[in-house]
Specification:
By secondary structure, this protein is an all-alpha fold. Helices cover 69% and strands 0% of the residues.
């Protein structure tokens, strides 16, 4: 809580064009007393504060410079997040106050843990990190109050694991990550920590699985964004994200061997061609369709659905690669073209497909 009484007495006095001596006469005190108030060396008694407020035609709150703070639970949590965002260490004091007021609130306890953790990681302060761990532990019995679908027991243990890593307790952090790695949520973190801890062979399987997950996630993200951009009529952004992903997928080619991503990339090329066609880039669209056709033929000549044919991915026990984009890469391209429901674009594709077939006779 910030009080600005000294500044406000001075401001109100000057606004009335009064000297310190004149104000002292009004209040029946010495000029020296007014000087000390304005310098912050002393504070007037409550009765004098009330008299000054009346004299200046204002309220005591305004004269004090007091601003009421919303201390309801939701507002407190929001304020703690803002302190963290601004990297304002006053959030640590706010956190302790909040914990005294709401000791059994999951939202407050967890947010305070995040506050201590953030400042602890940033400064390397082990005491702050230990406090974050205590609060994370304390939040677990309160988890039943949680209404955020992105927070679970698993994610809390993940935060605890990260905090142990920050404390240099690597084995304990890895152990927690592994124990609570349902759905592979922490696979990439386990691989990373093991690798930087000079445990390369142990890290490799985790990094391989993480790469496979990354590829799968990227496919979903690119398809999603492409649909969003095309629905907005933003062909340029659709081209950009497709081009980025196509370059990435082609970079996962192991030598000259085809892999499943070639089938996906052929379909992505067809979609990129559609985006270019809609933007009036007919020649570029044709060239992109030719690339899609050639890549589809390359894959279909020797199709591979073995994940270990993708660079940086080893064989994963129990894994299988499947899709719903067509039995062959050629089918995947056809599906992508039909998805635009544009007869002119479909005609361009037919001319490319038939022209290539004639060239090959």
């Amino acid at each position: 809580m910030e009080i600005k009484l000294a500044e406000n007495i001075r401001a109100f006095r000057k606004d009335r064009s009064l000297t310190q001596e004149q104000l002292s006469e009004v209040l029946g005190v010495t000029a020296g007393a007014v000087y000390k108030w304005e310098a912050g060396l002393s504070v007037p008694e409550l009765e004098l504060i009330v008299r000054m407020a009346n004299f200046f035609d204002t309220s005591v709150d305004v004269l004090l410079g007091y601003r009421m703070v919303d201390n309801r639970l939701d507002a407190t949590v929001k304020r703690l997040r803002e302190y963290r965002r601004l990297k304002d260490r006053a959030g640590l004091t706010e956190a302790e106050t909040a914990l005294k007021k709401y000791p059994n609130s999951f939202a407050v306890v967890r947010e305070c843990a995040s506050t201590y953790g953030a400042f602890g990681f940033e400064s390397g302060d082990r005491a702050l990190l230990r406090r974050a761990l205590e609060l994370l532990e304390a939040s677990l019995p309160l988890l039943g109050q949680n209404e955020d679908p992105e927070i679970s027991e698993q994610t809390i243990y993940g935060k605890m694991a990260e905090t142990y890593l920050g404390l240099g307790e690597i084995d304990r952090g890895i152990e927690l990550f592994k124990k609570h790695n349902a759905g592979g949520l922490f696979t990439h973190k386990i691989g990373h920590v093991l690798a930087v801890s000079d445990r390369a062979e142990e890290a490799s399987p985790f990094l391989s699985k993480a790469t496979a997950t990354l590829v799968e996630s990227l496919c979903d993200i690119v398809i999603g964004y492409t649909n969003v951009f095309l629905s907005r009529g933003d062909s340029a952004s659709a081209e950009a994200i497709l081009d980025l992903s196509i370059g990435f997928f082609l970079g996962l080619r192991e030598g000259d061997r085809p892999n499943f991503l070639d089938k996906v990339t052929a379909a992505f090329l067809a979609v990129e061609a559609g985006a270019r066609f809609l933007a009036g880039k007919t020649d570029e669209a044709r060239d992109t369709l030719i690339r899609a056709k050639e890549l589809a033929e390359f894959f279909d000549a020797s199709p591979s659905y073995d994940e270990s044919d993708i660079r940086f991915i080893d064989r994963i026990e129990g894994a299988s690669v499947y899709d719903d984009i067509g039995a062959t890469a050629a089918d995947a391209v056809e599906v992508a073209v039909k998805g635009f429901e544009n007869e002119d674009f479909a005609a361009l594709w037919r001319s490319v497909r038939e022209g290539k077939e004639k060239d090959g006779e």
